[in-house]
Amino acid sequence: MVQKYQSPVRVYKHPFELIMAAYERRFPTCPLIPMFVDSDTVSEFKSEDGAIHVIERRCKLDIDAPRLLKKIAGVDYVYFVQKNSLNSRERTLHIEAHNETFSNRVIIHEHCCYTVHPENEDWTCFEQSASLDIKSFFGFESTVEKIAMKQYTSNIKKGKEIIEYYLRQLEEEGITFVPRWTPPSLGPSSETSSSSKSQALSAAVLVPDAAALKEGLNGEGLSSPGAASEPVVGTPDDKLDADYIKRYLGDLTPLQESCLIRLRQWLQETHKGKIPKDEHILRFLRARDFNIDKAREIMCQSLTWRKQHQVDYILDTWTPPQVLQDYYAGGWHHHDKDGRPLYVLRLGQMDTKGLVRALGEEALLRYVLSINEEGLRRCEENTKVFGRPISSWTCLVDLEGLNMRHLWRPGVKALLRIIEVVEANYPETLGRLLILRAPRVFPVLWTLVSPFIDDNTRRKFLIYAGNDYQGPGGLLDYIDKEIIPDFLSGECMCDVPEGGLVPKSLYRTAEELENEDLKLWTETIYQSASVFKGAPHEILIQIVDAASVITWDFDVCKGDIVFNIYHSKRSPQPPKKDSLGAHSIASPGGNNVQLIEKVWQLGRDYSTVESPLICREGESVQGSHVTRWPGFYILQWKFHSMPACAATNLPRVDDVLASLQVSSHKCKVMYYTEVIGSEDFRGSMTSLESSHSGFSQLSAATTSSSQSHSSSMISRWRFC
Questions:
Q1: How many CB atoms lie within 10 A of CB 120?
Q2: Is the pTM of this model over 0.85?
Q3: pLDDT tens, position by position, 578-634
Q4: CB neighbour list of residue 690: distance below 8 Å, 6 or more residues apart
Q5: What pLDDT was estimated at residue 266?
Q6: The CRAL-TRIO domain covers which part of the protein (predicted)?
Q7: CA–CA dist 703, 705 (Å, integer)
Q8: For residues 417 and 68, what is the distance between their CA atoms, to the nearest angstrom?
Q9: Tell me, what DSSP letter sits at residue 545?
């Protein structure tokens, strides 16, 4: 398996030329990098004007590996070839390195680049990527991989420290400025400038070398120097800055940074700008121990779930029933000592049976989701207030009053359902759970729910029986005395409702609750359908006024499909189970509806009004069509089989979701459509915005690209 590494953009607040001068001092060997023994120049080229300087070196490394392994391999040192290309005119340095030793067994590539900061020409950016592919190594492939990764990551940390060390050394020598390169024709000073640039280049030659040689892990070897400079000089949103990561996301190891950057890059490529916030991506990575494939899979499922149920809008569009506001004994209460938002839940005082009987399971679940959404907002606010990353909250659960009434089976069932949904869609949001005054009945409840709680989450639980929370290692270790709630003998008045029994007059019948539950989760404007090989899904839209606008928004959840739009002057015979009217679509219960009759002929009974659009698994497609004639329009999703795609460095969304596919001859789509009068239509994207199209508000920003084809406009991007 190929191991990869991609660094964030590291910024030096010094001019490029001064950084090059510091970097040059790392040659021919660097005492700060003990493994870097020596280097010999293999070839060197300088342009006549001194702007271009290319040097290739053969570097000798003493890898820190077990003596037995070195003896088996028959080598004491490992050799790498490093090529540095300095362009003083463009103020860039590109470094490429690959292993010479065991090149038929192990393939290591690294690419590094120094460029001028896009927003401040007196600052310098550094970025590196690397890859490690061990084909075979005398049966020690796993051991070699671990050694390589360990040494590479340790030297990545040293890289910036070494540059800063030599910068201080230059300052001690009185060198705080190195002039920029200027063409020789501009004057005598150009020679001096050119010379200093050449020296800067040499310096750069070995820094990445040591890092690269040590163990390339993760990155794409870029063959063209120019190709690497473009991303670095992009907008701040294009790349993650190391200082930004530390300020807003926390201290991550080099490999964790690499996982975040690679997954974020994959989302940028597949979502075309519509990606979750970095904090949210990081939560899913942490939940799967930074396994990119596993994190990508659960995040894809969660984002689709959020869109389907419009969870992003829950805080703005849903008001909790008065029963919840009066009898749900939970609420936000200041923050803990780490700055995490603090949520207090008086579970022992809550009538879970009464709430379930009065509201139903789905209403309770929706309320818990709104609490989690509010928690995400509060984490962002506290990150700004406290000046450090805060990505989770603390929950304080008071169990005084818990008894067998709380073990009512439907109530426990609702609790397990809530845990399941929260675990799947809000990973790593619980920083700590303090369970206080646990009674004797608690072990019974814990036995029921603990199997449904992730191991990482369970490790965050602290359980106190009786008044143990008042002693050493208790509540005061985590919450300031001034904000301990009054019902826990604290000094702070807590606005959390006291709970109590829900009046039986508010109870509802099972039928009423079932209808209410159905209503809650069918409020989504999206409908689902299955598409089979030989059995497309079709919906009918009747247009009375020409120049109306048909808009659509759909996600391809599984398989590849072909999207078509047809027009017919006569209405097809609707299926018996589906009622179709003007501007209406097949009912969600239809699942798969076929309208075009077998006896119909294309060109005679109906015609194509748009070119077929092939949509890949995982894509989200938006678009519109301005109708030219009245009559009946048929939107069709048809099964499409595609040849296997060429291998890529990172799988597409369809590759990720393929593992979930039960049948290779079945596709699934989730769609929404609307007809708008031409006078009300302000563009394909605006029309969809007016109908509250559910795009994730976890995204820092949503952008869309559109293309015009005849009378229609279509935009598409990947959506997990």
A1: 12
A2: no
A3: 443 333 333 333 478 889 888 898 988 899 998 999 988 777 787 888 898 899 999
A4: 676
A5: 86
A6: 320-496
A7: 7
A8: 54
A9: S
